[in-house]
Amino acid sequence: PMEQTEPIDFPAGGTFTDQGRAVLAGVSAGTLTPGQGAQILAAIGALAKIAELDELERRLANLEARHVAP
Predict the structure, then answer these.
(1) In whole angstroms, what is the distance from residue 68 CA to residue 26 CA?
(2) Cα separation, 46 vs 40, whole angstroms
(3) pTM of the model
(4) Are the beta carbons of 17 and 25 closer than 8 angstroms?
(5) Mind spelling out the 3-state secondary structure of 3-65?
(6) For residue 22, which of 2, 43, 8 has the smallest C-alpha distance?
(7) What is the pLDDT of residues 21-52, one digit of tens each?
C-alpha cells in the first residue's frame, strides 16, 4: 500500500531540532506514519550535516583569509 503524503507544519525559522520535534509530534498525533517520520528525520539529519559542513567551510575560509602572507 502507498503511504499518503501529509504536509508538515515546521516552525518558521526553526532549528533542525525544532523540525525534528515537529516530525515526532506528527508521528505521535498519527498524521505521519512511523516510516514517514523516520525518512523525514533521516533527511533532516542529512541536511544538518550539509549545513555543518557549509559552516566549517565558511569558518576555515575566514581563518585562512586572516592568515594570508602579505
Answers:
(1) 50
(2) 10
(3) 0.79
(4) no
(5) CCCCCCCCCCCCCHHHHHHHHHHHHHHCCCCHHHHHHHHHHHHHHHHHHHHHHHHHHHHHHHH
(6) 8
(7) 999 999 999 999 999 999 999 999 999 999 99
